Amino acid sequence: MAPTQRLAGSRIREKRLDRGLRQAKVAEKVGISPSYLNLIEHNRRRIGGKLLADLARVLNVDMSLLADGVDAETLDQIRSAAATLGDTVEVDRAEELAARYPGWGALIAAQARRIAALEEKSQMLTDRLAYDPLLAGSLHEVISAVSAIRSSASILVGPEDLDRDWQRRFHENIHNDSVRLAASSEALITYLEAPEAVLEQSGSPFEQVEDYLATTGFHLAALEEGANPDDVLQDADLGDAAATVLRAVLKRYVSDAASLPLAAFQKACKDNAYDPAAIARVFDVPFSTVLRRMAQLPPGKGHPPIGLVVGDAAGALTFIKSVPGFSIPRKGGACPLWPIFGALSRPSQPLCQHVEMPAPNATRFLCYAIAEPMGALAFDAPPALQTIMLVMPDPPETAHAPHPVGMSCRICPRQNCTSRREPALLGIGPASVL
Predict the structure, then answer these.
(1) Which residues sit opposite 355 in a β-bridge?
(2) CA dist 419 to 113, 181, 204, 314, 402, Å?
(3) For 310-344, what is each residue's pLDDT tens digit?
(4) Contacts for 73 with CB less than 8 Å, ≥ 6 apart
(5) Are 98 and 74 in contact (CB under 8 A)?
(6) The whole model's pTM is what?
(7) What distance in Å separates the CA atoms of residue 421 and residue 433, rounded to the nearest whole number?
(8) Sheet of strand 384-393, all strands in order from the earlier edge strand to the far edge
(9) Which CATH superfamily does the domain covering 1-69 fall into?
(10) What is the Cα–Cα distance from 173 to 167, expressed in whole angstroms?
(11) For the chain, domain boundaries
């Protein structure tokens, strides 16, 4: 029995009890015996189709909530939030909390995202204070002006008598240094004071760009029709750092669209069952170009949901287009078993791998990945690698079992994983690090 089906009975029982309904009454309304409903609620009978729909109607809940439980992304965020308190939180009951109180679950997830964004901004400001040369120069200018004013003033108030000519000179020095102090202080305040629009933005520049692209379904119709990328960039109205990231994304988008025109590309995707290797052969373009272009397919046109992840050789994820069921943490380290990281050990070689997320969802995905050098190659210099992975949910069944992967080690329930970097919140699975 699938893990989601094992939990469906428990969810039905929780909803019935929440509404104060007797088991016999619910059974009567859906046309089954109370004993059979009792077996269902104790996860001893499979349930689906009309009976599940009837139970959802009687309990006044969405059928998907009974069948599938809580959204995987929300559940992962709740578990990640629990990581800050360690084993003092009942992590194993996170799904129960989110299922019984979806509003509170959504609030916890939203607050966890907000806290993560604020922590990142705090770290960014800390690094800026510690390492920013412009800030260091501004502070030095302020301190220098203050020191000069203090030196001149101490001479004027000292015991030594000064003639009028020397007094005039020191007064001029104090005036000039005061003007310099005012100017340097104003420049420092301007440099530190972020515009209101920037303060309202949360997350890193990468996340801001992803949030903007998510509003378009990661498909930019204006660029498909030949619009100027600068106009799209201006309409996005992002901060300087995010605008720099988006400019590079738009440049790549225009290049990919020119190599793979949308109409012909959509037809090729459907004709070749969304196989990127076959599509690359049709157009004679790089494998990575097809992966990016597939993630740009317009939503609502009959295409399957497609996710995309881009990273570098250090394992940092620089671009994320999420897909339901495949949790991709921006912070804290992703699962090292993902094909996107395996591709780094075999540059320029395409990978195709069926993977499965852990229970309770146990969702299967088909992943395509490749790592390629960025920029021009040079003698006696290691290439800068960029790795990219396409994620497609619910692929056809294969003769081989899917490769088990996880999310982030801290919330991954897989036992005996040799790639685990740190213990899970539930204390299962040995860590392979000191």
Answers:
(1) 365, 403
(2) 26, 56, 28, 16, 17
(3) 998 888 888 999 887 787 876 667 888 999 999 99
(4) 109, 322, 324, 327
(5) yes
(6) 0.61
(7) 6
(8) 317-321, 307-312, 384-393, 364-374, 351-356, 403-404
(9) lambda repressor-like DNA-binding domains (1.10.260.40)
(10) 10
(11) 1-69, 132-193, 304-375+382-434
